[in-house]
From TrEMBL, chains A, B, C, D:
Catalytic activity: L-glutamine + H2O = L-glutamate + NH4(+)
Family statement: Belongs to the glutaminase family.
Organism: Limosilactobacillus portuensis
Domain of life: Bacteria
Protein name: Glutaminase
Gene name, Swiss-Prot/TrEMBL: glsA
Entry EC no(s): 3.5.1.2
Example of a GO MF term: glutaminase activity
Enzyme class: hydrolase
Length: 307, 307, 307, 307
């Protein structure tokens, strides 16, 4: 591979200054912005190439929306999930219900805006006395190939305390009769899934499963259906980077999902990529992380529209 | 190829009943809805496989937005075009300025909503006494490999007569100081480019150039830069089917642009596809055409997210 | 007085057919639509003139927003209330937060949309172990000169059960840090105030206090300040009939507030008016009630713009 | 009268610093902001009391919307005008079509936003070879009792040159098939009516006609119907000060219309008021002018909601 990841990190480092760590909860506000890590999983060779803060644990936040979506599809089937949530772009910020209001839609426009993600979380039912979150946590450990994924109780408590806009969204969905579970349980699941701690390597593994048509490259075992993997990558491309998804589909051209913890998961053909850098742009995406992903895409020719 | 296009047409034929031909101008309103044609250009073999109404001429309408975009990039460079128009989804109908108003944007959100397309048309300057449209027409004949492409004067006159919403959009852009030319010239160019008559085969050729990284497969000549081709395919994926782009990125997964004349151009790896069927869904996309494209995508495994 | 109220009721009776009773809670859905009552309080003569279903008790619903607003002004002062809530029209339905979202406002646009009314309810603090609602109830009995006003427990329980959109609004305000109390208490107060049972006569008394510069005409006692009365009448004129306030300021020209229980309170110079007819127009206003008010305004020349 | 107008002007003078003159056309941008004039017409006594820059001529701008509305009602009848334009508040800025778009309305929400005013201007037809504007000019001279009102050609030419947003609105109305005349004529009328030069005294006269039920107090002649006067005052109260109408209905309580030339016309019972001060607040209303009007309302007890 022509690309030296350490050099790439160095080249993107100064972009950190352009962003700011998330400040809506203390646990995120105190994170050191000057971190940049990457892990690149080459599915063909089975080799992982990591650099920088690749093994630092950070809050998964909205990257978890991909995992819960995949789990919901596994449990309920793709058709049922598609009945409940659209795959259209909103044109607005991730935590607004503006577009549902204006367009008189009753189902969330896509699973990656908060309203859609809360709805997807509400679809997971308790099973064998295992709460929705316990199931999601187990599935996360499996698809991220990382048994160390745990709930960060401090972050979860912070999310609970500051989650009033998400409560507003959840009650809106309840009022529209689209939320599948009660508000408290749905939000407990949602806040907890956002509070899981992962590393670049965990996300590279997740990306690699998606890059390998749903099969774990480390074991050869199918973890999700081919349809689920295809669906997730498509929705990541069109709505994964919030309101700037179209901007980066042009610049980078790789299905990607970001979180306000600074994480990015990307899934190119034959490559799973996990990136972490906590300083965010105004849309909530990691600045240096996206710069690094753009460089990787260009150097390794991973833009899926480049054919 | 396992797929028999005649069988596919037959299978999708009944979907025509679900749509309606565009009625905003008489020349489109009188088109027979019961038409469905397709042309599939296999770039590797160089073979074209056509069926149904593949050689019927129809109004290109919004499919021309792809061509003018490519021509503007060739003339001005990609950077200059990206300065003038975004690549974000709007969340609204193609002829509204709602989103620009709400988000206080002064540049159109993408080149495929009407405001963005009018802006792109305004970027083309007169050159050597050749009007912007004359240049676009020549470029269309070249990239569609179809010297028969001509302006349909009846449709153009109709567009002129009924084009008040587009005039409203153009003056809005003028007021925001983003339109690059005067309103009359910009709209003349825009209305004329929409009034060109093409066939499924012309659009398959256009799709094949995009599918072949910008090189005409029939001659080996590069017609547009690789970057322009990649850019166009990305924007077609995220915004090419109006407000339903995200819906079809999941269902079909091929960069596609539709027009209210019933045309579709699609560009999958190694395949250029042109389709025509004039009965439209409420979003303005060909109903049977998209059904046929979905079938082709599934049978030939062309979904670019399926990796 | 030239106007015979029984004749007026008869003339407006057939308008009932144009409306529908509120159906969002069973207790309102089962109300007989064929009711129309009015009570007209002539402040100068001290005479009350009632007709039709003038003594039927019905749910006060949004008419209570006037009372709680007046009470909040009495407790906190007008300046403090004006700091917390605007007096601008929204251009949208009463239960939407669309306009706050679009305009990036953090304070509700006026006290008569639900978000504004919930905010005003949140301003009332517990005092001497009397809950906000207990204080509002006592104040309602006083200003409506009606000790029979009580909480309808069935309606209150229904409001609680179906109140998810109001919960969404309350959490939205909480997230914007504008709600003055916790969500549960604020909504308990709000839902209870909406569930008080009043008559046309109670509302005519309320209207008469406003028509008499804040002084109860039955006792000569000042119940609210002149400023509070003036403020309330102004806001009733510009926003009292929801999104149709401007329509009726032209047709009727009397400060009026409606409720989905079918009640109307109006306050013209020298006249307090209470009306009840439960069949509503799509905006949530009593159809026959407004027809009757329009007739009264015309016959008694009460339009305050007619000078 | 207890109020000394010179003292009042002095008291409000410093408020001028809070505003800025309109800058969208050079002819307005060069106006000296440090001007404040007032003329108060006492209908009962027939006396006019003027102070400050009461006889300075300034561009009438949006105050002309009242005059054209009254003239349209005189020519077509109130019912016909009400068919074409609503009386609802928009919740948005005066030059936006946002609310029509969101609410899917085809008729402008009220006659004082630009779209509504352009529509009203389009209703005036050529008559006896007199253009719509010539008729409006004559009517203005009559209702303002000011034969010196003339068209300021420099301002008109500037409006023409910078009027693209109004062109956008006009074509929007044309596309919705609500504009009654062609775009060019409608806008010529509109731009010309905005370019008439008036004084505080002219506007006080206009306000006095409205304050006197449509009868010119200087001659006893009825100039407009009582219904037209009542209608205009109601719409001025609910929408006359743009998006801040509700704010000032509470603060001032007098039907008022502002223009970006710095003019205000107000019509209280028995008083017509004209004010001029060109420094504007962000909503487009004269800052010192409204401060002065608020002082006049308070001192003379003119708030119509204060009963």
């Amino acid at each position: 591979m022509a690309l030296n990841l350490n050099d790439a990190i160095q080249a993107c480092w100064k972009r950190i200054d352009e962003g700011q760590v998330a400040t809506y909860i203390p646990a995120l506000a105190k994170v050191d912005p000057y971190q940049l890590g990457v892990c690149l999983y080459d599915v063909d060779s089975g080799k992982k190439n990591c650099a920088g803060a690749a093994n630092v644990r950070f809050a998964i936040e909205s990257v978890s929306k991909v995992i819960t979506l995949l789990y919901a599809i596994e449990r309920l089937g793709l058709a049922k999930v598609e009945e409940q949530v659209g795959t259209r772009q909103t044109g607005f910020a991730f935590d607004t219900i503006l577009n549902m209001e204006i367009t008189k839609e009753t189902k969330p426009l896509n699973p990656f805006v908060n309203s859609g993600a809360i709805l997807v979380s509400s679809l997971i039912e308790e099973e064998d006395h295992r709460s929705p979150f316990d199931q999601i946590l187990d599935f996360t450990r499996e698809i991220c190939h990382d048994p160390q994924v745990t709930l960060n109780e401090e972050i979860y408590q912070s999310e609970l305390r500051t989650g009033d806009m998400n409560r507003s969204l959840a009650y809106y969905l309840k009022a529209k009769e689209t939320l599948a579970n009660d508000v408290t349980t749905s939000l407990e699941t949602y806040f907890k899934q956002c509070s899981m701690m992962v590393t670049c390597e965990s996300l590279a593994n997740l990306g690699a499963v998606l890059a390998n048509d749903g099969i774990a490259p480390w074991s050869g075992e199918r973890l999700i259906s081919s349809d689920a993997a295809t669906y997730a990558k498509s929705v990541m491309m069109t709505t994964g980077l919030y309101n700037e998804s179209g901007t980066y589909s042009v610049k980078i051209g790789i299905p990607t999902k970001s979180g306000v913890g600074g994480g990015l998961v990307a899934s190119a053909p034959k490559y799973g990529i996990g990136i972490f850098s906590p300083a965010l742009d105004p849309a909530g995406n990691s600045v240096a992380g996206l710069a690094l992903l753009e460089m990787i895409s260009r150097e390794l020719k991973l833009d899926i529209f480049n054919y």
